[in-house]
Amino acid sequence: MANPVAQTQIDITWSASTDNFILDGYVLLRDGSPIATTTLTTYMDTGLTASTSYTYEVYAFDSFLNISTTSNALSTTTLAVPVVPPTPTSTATSASTAT
């Protein structure tokens, strides 16, 4: 699962891999390039660009240099920068009264 949580952050989670040897960890790919190696099944990808689509994949590896097949690709988009409406400006008008 890839969950955009901020304009510059996507949180990624995946299911644990099973291995007949001792699993050493996971490699997380963003847009086809490795960005992290971890023993966890979660990762907070930060420093991203707002309103931008990213694709993630992960694979597992063990201490015997066996690697799993790469997971299915999962794409999501970071949150957009909020649009702040302009602050209304008021112009003071002076009314003159004739007497």
Describe the structure.
This protein has 99 residues and is mostly beta strands. The chain has a four-stranded antiparallel β-sheet, with no helix packed on it. The chain has no helices and seven strands. The mean pLDDT is 90.
Please outline what is shown here.
The protein is mostly beta strands and 99 residues long.
Write the layout of secondary structure elements.
Layout: E1 2-6, E2 9-13, E3 23-30, E4 33-38, E5 42-46, E6 53-62, E7 74-77
Antiparallel strand pairs: 1-2, 2-5, 3-4, 3-6, 6-7
As a whole number of angstroms, the C-alpha radius of gyration is 24 Å
- What about the largest sheet? 4 strands, antiparallel
The low-confidence parts are: none
Fraction in beta strands: 35-45%
Number of helices: 0
Average residue pLDDT: 90
Count of distinct strands? 7
Q: What general form does the structure show?
A: rod-shaped
Strand order within the widest sheet? Answer: 4-3-6-7
Structural class: mainly beta
- What's the SSE pattern? EEEEEEE
Distance between the termini: 75 Å
**Portion of residues in helices?**
under 10%
